[in-house]
Design goal:
With 321 residues, the protein is α/β, with parallel strands linked by helices. Helix 3 packs parallel to helix 11. The chain has a single domain (20-188, 248-318), classed as Vaccinia Virus protein VP39 (Rossmann fold, 3-Layer(aba) Sandwich). The protein has eleven helices and eleven strands. Helices cover 36% and strands 22% of the residues. The strands form two sheets. Strands 3-2-1-4-5-11-10 form a seven-stranded mixed β-sheet, with helices on both faces. It is found in: Nucleus. S-adenosyl-L-methionine binds at residues 62, 80, 102, 131, 153, 158. One of its GO terms (molecular function) is RNA binding. One of its GO terms (cellular component) is P-TEFb-cap methyltransferase complex.
Length: 321
Amino acid sequence: MEAMKRAASPSSDAANKRRYHSQDDTEARAVAEHYNARPEVGREKRKESKIIRLKSFNNWIKSVLIGRYIARGDYVLDMGCGKGGDLLKMVKARIAELVGADIASISIEQAQDRYNGLRNPPFRARFLALDCYSYPLAPHLPDSYTVDVVTMQFCMHYAFETEEKARMMLQNVSHTLRDGGYFIGTIPNANWIVKKVRDQKSRGQETAFGNDIYWITFEEEDTKEFPSYGAKYMFHLEDAVDCPEYLVHFPTFTSLAKEYNLELEYKQTFHQLYQEAAQESHFNNLLYRMNVVGGHGQALSEAEWEAAGLYLAFAFRKRRP
């Protein structure tokens, strides 16, 4: 994928680090505060996590998507970049430039610090503390700035709190993405979640389910009907997430995306993607290098494998209007 000529390259100085603190969006503030409050731990401490294999597996999934859709010399927008956990993946992809945006300002500071800590950073970067689901991204970038790929990992579902937020998110994706560019991401699998909670109800059980590393809880009245937007549930994943999330009704997502010139090209659950990508030698070797599978063949626990089934991966391509 050949990178297009861009406007003047953005700098990564402190003056360009925007901060957004919503005064009237309680849910957005709760999500930002949740991720801001999560401490940055060292690599050795992360190895002690109860879900270390699952975290490695999720990173492998992201590496597969990045390996397939991001090419050397690309300009990339990481919307919902968090603490910069995918920076090394971008180093390996040999991109030319990165824009990282996230609602959580402390996470953005940590992402900037991670980037600054790279030895001879091989790409330029800027980081923006901005709610890309409530405000346009364009005013924070040079005029006519475009990227080859927009990536949104484990975060897009927050936009589906309302149709307005989903539309703003897609507007930011489409406006920033060049024609022919890719929009990739990972989200919870709403079909799997809804089927699970309906199975629970059909057996007269509670509208909550999970195992010893994750659980999902719906309010009883929220399971009578699942709207296209605002279908809220509480999600807990051990040592990772503990906040409200929203179902993404995929047909609604794809239909809405078409209005922004984004056509679906790929959709697979994590389990399906694993079965497919593990057949490719490069990605199979990566399973071992990333410690998804240990030296003695140890893989994800049964509980971790079930939790991995919560998610799906997607890729859209932007067509000409």
